[in-house]
């Protein structure tokens, strides 16, 4: 045992002070007892929150709307390394919006990210076993009959674009992404 000369030694006086404090804590109506009772409810609440987090796997699901519909990322598997992922980015192209000059080119917004990525899967454009997540072009299925994983979940990337990832709603939180909401804030 180390000797720490800065800490007060345990002696009879300290023992009596501790006993007096404990006596006040257990006596109804004392300020010490009221403080203990007030904090007891908080401790029970915190314990309940801890149990709920354990029961849900500690996942707190954040939900955000997709704010950038210029492109989407279709993941071949639930994996994300910074901005790199196994899969492909889908862009519908550029067009002219009504009321704008014909020289103004804008990306065509992708309104249904889930449907777009399902089409990529159905054409065998994605391969979860490939390191980059892309199927070889010779394997593409133009009949749209290749099996599509179920479920696929729409998450929201840091830049506001949609990412469609194989897995249930927990996959977004596992990758540090938000789950897509259907309504804008």
Q: Helix proportion of residues, in percent?
A: 25-40%
Q: List low-confidence stretches.
A: none
Largest sheet: 6 strands, mixed
Shape: elongated
Q: Nearest-angstrom radius of gyration?
A: 29 Å
Q: Can you count the helices?
A: 4
Elements, N to C (H/E): HHEEEEEHEEHE
Strand order of the largest sheet: 1-8-6-7-2-3
N-to-C span: 60 Å
Strand proportion: 5-15%
Q: What's the rounded overall pLDDT mean?
A: 81
Strand elements, count: 8
Structural classification: alpha/beta
What does this structure look like?
With 185 residues, this protein is α/β, with parallel strands linked by helices. Helices cover 30% and strands 15% of the residues. It is built from 4 helices and 8 strands, in the order ααβββββαββαβ. The protein has helices at residues 12-26, 31-55, 113-122, 170-174, and strands spanning 63-64, 72-75, 87-90, 94-95, 106-107, 152-156, 162-166, 178-180. The strands form 2 sheets. It has a 6-stranded mixed sheet with strand order 1-8-6-7-2-3. Helix 1 (12-26) packs across helix 2 (31-55). The longest helix is centred in the N-terminal third of the chain and has 25 residues, at 31-55. The radius of gyration is 29 Å and the shape is elongated. It starts with 11 loop residues before the first helix and ends in a 5-residue tail after the last strand.
């Amino acid at each position: 045992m180390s000797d720490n000369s800065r800490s007060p030694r345990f002696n009879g006086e300290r023992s009596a002070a501790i006993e007096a404090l404990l006596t006040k804590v257990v006596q109804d109506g004392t300020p010490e007892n009221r403080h203990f009772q007030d904090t007891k409810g908080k401790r029970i609440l915190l314990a309940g929150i801890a149990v709920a987090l354990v029961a849900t796997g500690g996942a707190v699901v954040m939900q955000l709307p997709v704010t950038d519909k210029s492109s989407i990322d279709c993941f071949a598997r639930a994996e994300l390394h910074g901005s790199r992922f196994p899969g492909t980015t889908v862009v519908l192209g550029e067009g002219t919006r009504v009321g704008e000059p014909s020289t103004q080119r804008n990306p065509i917004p992708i309104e249904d990210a889930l449907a777009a990525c399902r089409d990529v899967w159905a054409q065998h454009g994605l391969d979860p076993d490939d390191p980059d997540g892309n199927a070889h072009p010779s394997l593409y299925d133009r009949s749209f009959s290749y099996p599509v994983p179920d479920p696929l979940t729409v998450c929201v990337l840091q830049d506001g674009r949609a990412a469609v990832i194989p897995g249930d709603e927990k996959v977004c939180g596992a990758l540090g992404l938000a789950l897509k909401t259907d309504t804008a804030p």
